[in-house]
Amino acid sequence: MGDWLSQAWTVARKDLLLEFRTRTAIVSALVFTALVLTVFNFGRDPTAVPTIDLAPTILWVTFTFAAMLAMNRAFQLELENDALEGLLASPLSRTSLYWGKLLANLVFVAVVEVVGLPLFVLFFDVPVAPVLGPLIAVIALATVGFVAVGTLFSALVIRTRFAELLLVVLLLPFLLPPLIGAVQVTARLLGGRPLSESAGWLRLLAAYDIAFVTLATLLFPFTVEE
Amino acid sequence: MLSAEALRHAFAGGRGEGGSGGRVVALDDVTFTLDAGQTLAVFGPNGAGKTTLLKVLAGLIRPDAGRATVAGGRGAIGWIGHQSHLYGHLTVRENLLFWAALYRVPAATRARRADAVMRRLGIAEHAERAVCALSRGLAQRAAIARALIHEPRVLLLDEPFTGLDLAAAAGFRTLLAQLRGAGRVVVLATHNVDEGVELATDVAFQRRGRFVHFAPRGGRGPAQIADEYRRALGAGGG
C-alpha cells in the first residue's frame, strides 16, 4: 500500500472510530432515512401513481440527503480543538487528507444505504431480489461520485458561517448528473429491463466518478490553505 | 536548521494600529537563523504577529514575501498552537498513536513512544481517559505530548504555558531545557516575559510584525529583559 494511501487510511480509521464513539451522525442519518421512507410510504397514493414509477426517485432522494449529513460531519470533526490546523501542520499530504475523508464518508454512506435498502424494499414492496447485484453496483457507482464532490465541498465551506446550509446549496447542482443517472438505471432495473438498456447512463456515472474524483483530489489542497 | 529570510505578511481588512492600506501587517522584514541547541523567545503584545510568524515557520501560512526554511520539513516540526489539536472523544493514548502514525513514527515503536512521552509529562495515569474529560491543564500537557511524539528537531510553541499550573509549567521548562541540551531548536512565542526568558538563548521583541530587538540573551535575567521590553515597545505596546 502506498504511503499516501496508508496515511489516508489512518485518517479514515480515526474518523470512523470517532463516529463509532459518538454515533451522533450515523444515528441521525439512519433515523432520517427511516423517517423519509415512512413519510413517502404513507404520503403516496398507489392507485394514482404505480409504486414502481415512484420508488427509484424516493430511494435516491433519501440516500442523497442522508449522505449530506455524512458530508457535513466530515470536517466538523476537525473543528474541535482546531485539529485541522494540526493536520495541516503535519507531514500528512493534502491528497491523503482528502482520501481519508472520502474513504470514511464512503463507509458512512454505505452503512446508511445498507440499512436503507431493506427498509425501502419493506415499505415499497419492489422486486429487488432478481436485480440485487446490478442495483448494488449502481448504488456504489453513484455514491462514489456524489461523496467525492461532497467531501470537497464540505472542506470548502467548513470555515464559513452557515456551513451546513451552504453545503446543500452548493452541492445539489453538482449532484444532478449522478442522481438523474442513478434514478434512470434504478427505474429500468426495477422495471425488469435488461442492464444493457442502461449502458449510456452507466457510462455517465462512471465518467462522473473518474472526472470528479480526479478533480476533487487536485482541487482539495486549495480549499484548506489559509 | 531553521531560517527566516525577509518575511513579510499582511492580512486583509485591517484598519487602525498596524494597518497599512486596509491590511494589518503581521510580519515585516523578519530575518533570523537558528542552529541546533538555540532557543528563540519572541515576546510581543497581542496582535504583534507572533502567531503569524510561527504559522509561517510551520508552513501553515504562505508569506507574502520572503522564505522560511526548516531542515527536514514538516515532519521535523513539533507544533503547539492556541488549541490542543486533539480529538475530544478519543483517549489521550489514541490521540498520540494517531498523531504518531501521521508523523510516520514506525508502528513498532509508537506505543512505547506514547508511553514515554506521557510519563515525561505526568499524564500516564490519564492515558485511557477521553481528552474531553480532561482539565485544561491536563489537556495542555496532552497537547505538548502530541507535539513531542515524533521527537521533532524543531519546536514551534505558541503560548505553550497557557493553562499549566505552576508545577506543570516548571516541569515543562525543565523538559524544554533538556530538549535544548539535546540539540533541538525551539521558537517560543509569548506575551509574558517572565515565562520564557530563562529558557532562551536568543530574545526577540516583536511589534507590528517587526523585530524591534533581536539579540542573544547573554547574561540578561528576566527583570532586565522585562525592562528592555517595556522600553523597546513603549508605553503603548503593540
N-to-C series of helices and strands of chain A: HHHHHHHH
Mean pLDDT of chain B: 90
Alpha-beta classification of chain B: alpha/beta
Distance between the termini of chain A: 30 Å
Low-pLDDT residue intervals, each spanning 5 or more residues of chain A: none
Would you count the extended β strands of chain A for me?
A: 0
The number of domains of chain A: 1
Tally the helices of chain A.
8
Major sheet: arrangement of strands of chain B: 6-7-8-4-9-10
Measured as a percent range, the helix fraction of chain A is: over 70%
Low-confidence stretches of chain B: none
Give the overall shape of chain A. globular
Please give a structural write-up.
The complex is a heterodimer of chains A (226) and B (238). Helix content of chain A is 81%, strand content 0%. Chain A is mostly helical and 226 residues long. Chain B starts with a strand and ends in a 5-residue tail after the last helix. Chain B is of the alpha/beta class and 238 residues long. The mean pLDDT of chain B is 90. Chain B has a 6-stranded mixed β-sheet, sandwiched between helices. A 4-stranded antiparallel β-sheet of chain B has the order 2-3-1-5. Chain B is built from 7 helices and 10 strands. Helices cover 33% and strands 27% of the residues of chain B. Chain B has 2 domains: 138 residues, Rossmann fold; 70 residues, no CATH class. The chains are: A mainly alpha (226), B alpha/beta (238).
What attributes does this structure have?
heterodimer; A: 226 residues; mainly alpha; 8 helices; 81% helix; 0% strand; globular; B: 238 residues; alpha/beta; Rossmann fold; six-stranded mixed beta sheet; four-stranded antiparallel beta sheet; 7 helices; 10 strands
